[in-house]
Amino acid sequence: MAPVAPRSGDAIFASVEHVNAELFTLTYGAIVRQLLTDLEEVEEVNKQLDQMGYNIGVRLIDEFLAKSNVSRCVDFKETADVIAKVGFKMFLGVGASVTNWDADGTCCSIVLGDNPLVDFVELPDTCQGLYYCNILSGVVRGALEMVSMKTEVTWVRDMLRGDDAFELQVKLLKQVPEEYPYKDDE
Amino acid sequence: MDTNDSLRVASLWHSMHAISQQLSPTVGCLGIELLEADTFDLHCFQSLTGTKFFVVCEPGTQHMEGLLKVIYELYTDYVLKNPFYEMEMPIRCELFDINLSQAIQKDRVALLGR
Question: Where do the DSSP E strands lie in A100-180?
Answer without folding.
Answer: 107-112, 149-157, 166-175
